[in-house]
Amino acid sequence: MKFDHNNISPLDNRYLSKISDIRNIFSEHGLIKTRFIIEINWLLFLCEKYPRYFTKINSATIKKIIKFRDSFNDQSVLEIKKIEKTTNHDVKAVEYYIRNFFNKDKGLSKYNHLIHFGLTSEDINSLAYAILLKDGLKIYLNNIKLLNANLKKLSKKWINIPLLSRTHGQAASPSTIGKELKVFTTRIDREIKKISDITPLAKFSGAVGNYHALDLAVSNIDWIKLTKRFIKNFNVEQNRITTQIEPHDWIAEMLQIITRINNISIDLSQDLWIYISNEIFKLKLNTNEIGSSTMPHKVNPIDFENAEGNFGLSNALNDFFINKLTKS
């Protein structure tokens, strides 16, 4: 939008500076571009690996197609969105965008039949989402590891600072601040190990997942092995036994782990602002900030409170996707 304040989501306004790295991945621009790259790379893959079955392609044509692929920009997105207004189909709009470009060049137009060859939309989408989630997960993991590393430093630094523990909200036995923080770092370490083992999956087997169109076109090719090789180029593994859609179990598993990390982080946030309330910690006053509109002496633990709310919202969305995506 022309002005940030016209956006609906605070992620596109108030919190924009905090998510700029993942915004580039998960924006609509990022999704459309990834679909576009998959379509182009599939065509090149077929022609380069099996020129005797598909139209032979020379180096000059390859360079021309790669230049077109690598020049994708905001204008490309606008053109694809314009096509989508007619097709009412997002993946088909990408295909038509490529076809329109190829039709302007006699040398490229003879490859039109290989655009989206043998595929269904879910082949493009499942691989595109796997790529986006893989890239986003890498950034997420780096941030979680950084958070845990900072907590470990503080745990070690404060290991001998005494703290009166509470159970059921009542004064209990003594502990230390460092030990209490170590509880959180240990929990997060377990979840980091689990989420690091997640394998992104995609299907590339056409309508209903049986490789029909591909096998009918060229029966001499082992399409299961070939599509596996293609998907592997994106550092994604093949789910070769599916229906028309990839069942998304791996995404649900990933979101369940993220939900547990969210809950650990909510627990940490609540403990920290309780420590502040009990004057175990003291918030630093930023002279440029206002803690209260009517009580200027107040400094509120707003970062921990905001974190708690955002983690809760994330959990609600995760729960929806976990239950929705795994049911076809």
TrEMBL record:
Gene3D superfamilies: Fumarase/aspartase (Central domain), Fumarase/aspartase (N-terminal domain). One of its GO terms (molecular function) is lyase activity. Residues 55-309 form the Fumarate lyase N-terminal domain. Pfam families: Lyase_1. This is Adenylosuccinate lyase. It comes from SAR86 cluster bacterium. InterPro entries: Fumarase/histidase_N (IPR024083), Fumarate_lyase_CS (IPR020557), Fumarate_lyase_fam (IPR000362), Fumarate_lyase_N (IPR022761), L-Aspartase-like (IPR008948), PurB_bact (IPR047136). Keywords: Lyase. It comes from the Bacteria.
